[in-house]
Each structure stands twice: as C-alpha cells, then as structure tokens.
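Lecture notes, unit on binding sites. The following record was shown on slide 14. It pairs a sequence with S-adenosyl-L-homocysteine.
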Amino acid sequence: MDHLRTGIGMTSQRTRNRLVQRLRESGIKDERVLEVIASTPRHLFVDEALAHRAYEDTALPIGNGQTISQPYTVARMTEVLLAAGPLDKVLEIGTGSGYQTAVLSPLVGRLFSVERIEPLQHKAAARLKELGYRNLHLKLSDGTWGWPEFGPYDGILAAAAPENVPDSLLQQLADGGRLILPVGTEEQKLVLITRHGDHFTRKTLESVRFVPFLPGVQR
Ligand code: SAH
C-alpha cells in the first residue's frame, strides 16, 4: 500500500506526465490546467484497488453508483471555465471524489462545492483536507438550489447532467459569469452559458457521458 502513496510504478510522475501528453494530443491547450493535472495525485481519489488505473484517461467507480470524472473532461471543463479570465468565486455541483475540486482549487480564488450523497461528501472533505487544499468550502447539499449564501459566482461547473439547466444556477451567475455543465439524458452535450446582465448566451460543445443530476440529499 505504501508504494501507492509514495508514487512509485503506476502512480509515478512519469505515468502522470503520460496522461498530460495524452490530454495535449486530445486538444487541451491551457498550460495552467495541464500543469495542475500533472501535479494532482488522482490515485488518492480512488480506491486503492483501482489506483493502478488512476492515470488512464477514463472515468472510474467511486462507490454509491458514482464515478470520478474522466481526466479529459475535467481538463476540458476547467479550460473552458477559465478561458475568459481569472475567476474569483466558483461553485461546483457534484464534489464526488473531490478530484475536479482539487484541479480547480489552485486555479480560482475561492471554491464552493456541494455533493448530495453523504458518504461521498464526507470522504471527499476528509481527503481534500488531508491533502492541504485551503480555499474550499464544502457542503452536503442538493445543488439544484446552488449555494445562494455565497453567490453570485464568476464560474459554476456541474459534474452531473440535468435534463434542463436549473434556474437557480443561472440566477447565481455573476454578470459576465460562466456556467459549464453537461445537459441531457441519453444524449448529453457539454453546454457553456454566459451571463450578460439579464441575458444569457448558450454554446453547445462536445458530446459527453455523465451521471444524472439528481434531486435531494442521500444519507
Ligand atoms: N467531479 C467529480 C464527479 C463525480 S460524479 C469527480 O471527479 O469525482 C458526479 C457527482 O455529482 C456524484 O457524486 C453525484 O452524487 C453528484 N450529484 C448529482 N446530482 C447532484 C445534485 N443535485 N447536487 C449535488 N451533487 C449532485
């Protein structure tokens, strides 16, 4: 077990660099994002039994029927979110394992993240604390309602796919703010919504595969 934590073999820096090379070839261009992916220990966000697969560009199970997002998708959504300039306050819906949270954390001012499944929320919170992430505010909550106390947000990212974009997320976007999320049931597309005053523009990006955005808290 110790060798997984010290970064030998399948979890080594070389293995991580290979993943980054692959993301580059898949079209990820933002060097800040690639650098963060190269330095984030994804193997600590999955079960030890799956750690040897942590640097494959694939989603993996994290329990409770959920998955840690595919590195390409994490990189792509982060890149799109950051593309218009620095973001002070960011809201994430669907903390899951905390991996996307860990990638966003060094790239934004303050990061708020909610997760609706209690065991996942507890595990992610403990893990992120242990790894020393500091600018985070985490909570067990249904992200359908956003997190109004701290809004408006310069960026919002959802890691689960609703059928339609929840209105509260639009309302909690700051002027000029960007919301990126997968939308749809069978057929899902990544959608970028930008707020201009009371007007919203919507851009459809590539096809993706995410777990569904579900209502309520599960204990
Ligand atoms: N980025 C995470 C992805 C986890 S999968 C990672 O890399 O690990 C998406 C997560 O969204 C799941 O944990 C799921 O429970 C959560 N989720 C789905 N609907 C939600 C909602 N309405 N509010 C909060 N979290 C939600």
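Take-home: Residues 136 and 181 are 20 Å apart (CA to CA).
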